[in-house]
Give the backbone structure.
Amino acid sequence: MTTPEYYTVIGAGHGGKAMTAHLALMGFKVTLYNRTFERIQVIQKRGGLDLESGEHGPRGFGKLEATTSDMSEALSKAQVIMVVTPSSAHADIARATAPHLKDGQIIVLHPGRTCGALEFAKVLNDAGCMADVTVSEAETFIYASRSDGPAQARIFRIKEAVPLAALPATRTQLVLDAINPAYPQFIDGVNVLNTGLNNMGAIFHPALTLLNAGWIERTNGDFQFYIDGVTPSTARILEVLDRERVTVASALGVRARTAMEWLKLAYDTTGNDLNDAIHNQPGYYGIKAPSTLNHRYIFEDVPMSLVPLASLAMRYGVSVRGMESIIRLGSILHQTDYWRRGRTVERLGLSDLSVSELTAYVNEGIKP
């Protein structure tokens, strides 16, 4: 395909605003969509967003083509659709986009968490979407960013390499070629099992939030999440969860990166152990803890990251008692059954597939 000029970003949270402004400043035509118009009203009135970043990062006013809460308008010219929302919204977005998608459009989930592209594609199919679109997912979000105001965004850091995969993997290079002019940082993520099983948010976010629950409630998150919240003891629990994730991946024929390897890839940081490596990552300094326990680190990452990992483990014979404990604690804390709300293999339509059949599906799109 020709190099896309027109991007639509779905989601006007901190990440969506940062991506929208950065794409506009790079010279692309960008439409920003958000379900709730009130959240983007100021952006529409101003015609764009202000972006700030570090000393050598992108900055300036990003002028937008359109700002809308009408999905038909948002997708009418889009060549690449960047979904930058909590993964708990992916199914709803798939249903909302299904009637308006056109042949040749590319959808990128930022990030997919675990099984995001698989869920998105299944919902599109269940909704009767006939358009030949390519659904893909990033392994993690490319920016460390925040929202500074209703029409202001700030980028702290842009990751140096982010794996990405399409469903099926035979379309991954198409996606990489399309977005390379904007984002050369994206690299081949092999397939969506690899990107989903290398989901570090599943390991870092829920456990650290739950293990620091008392401190979060007492201080409203007034401490450095990764610097003060990660101690030798909490890091040991993260290491157990990480080993379980890597074991699940191995059962599916995937050689997943360890948390230590991921920190090296994404941030070029190392250490003697996970506690050491996290504290050696300059980008983690200054990032405050969640101000409340009603946070996406639990309501998103438990059902959309840990549940699919644990469900895959159960289906393919792997013990993940650590993950099951964090899922149970999150469910107790929020008085919600995250197993019922989460991405289980049954809900994804994968429960009858053997490992080889699942691999054939993600690699080549072949499903028995």
Q: What stands out?
A: The mean pLDDT is 96. The longest strand covers residues 143-149. The chain has two domains: 6-197, 201-359.
